[in-house]
Amino acid sequence: MATHNTTSSATPISSAPQKLRLRWRVVDIAVASVIGVASALIYWVAAIATYAPWGVLEAILPGLAGIVNGLWLFAGPLAAVIIRKPGAALYAEVVAGVLEALLGNQWGGIGTLIIALAQGAGAELAFACFKYRKWNLPTMLLSGALAGVGSWAYSFLTNLQAVDVASSYGIVYLVTSVISGMLIAGVAMWYLFTAIARTGALDQFSSGREQRAKALKRINNK
């Protein structure tokens, strides 16, 4: 992605609502793939960095470790809010999951692919609920939350470890996963997106031009 601080006359900035376009461009695929690759590296590092803290959190309260799950949920929401095409969240999350598995982790290839599909589907569902026409912080929060639900669902469907009535493990793990998804995949990714967009790096996307227009409007109104 090329970064530039001035707006080319060939790429007008407009805050007007954009018509939903279903067809993916080459740049859409390229950027979604880059997000997936970069996220995979972060996911892989996060798996190593949180190995010990995970055990500590579980010792404090079973299920509390879900609070770090957001570190594996952000590829989908970020790709979706930038590209604004159906399937972007699912695609980016699956790419990240596949590459993370290839790098090697404790969940193995099949397990990582399944959880990536679950998390990506959850992230995608939030935008689909609004027919891919709501691209704001509340929708990002919902996307992060549903990605967290997807992460929890993987544990439940694969080995039932997310549900333990006696210790309330399943409830705690669900709540912490959702909160983590909202904060990291939702709030943090929204502000990362807006910060990148304001530099002009995303002017090839309607999402980037929209954020630039809003930023210029605020500057002009001062």
UniProtKB/TrEMBL annotation:
InterPro entries: ABC_thiamin-permease_prd. Keywords: Membrane, Transmembrane, Transmembrane helix. The keyword Transmembrane helix applies. The chain crosses the membrane at residues 29-54, 60-81, 137-157, 169-193. The keyword Ion transport does not apply. Pfam families: ABC_cobalt (PF09819). This is ABC transporter permease. It comes from Bifidobacterium dolichotidis.
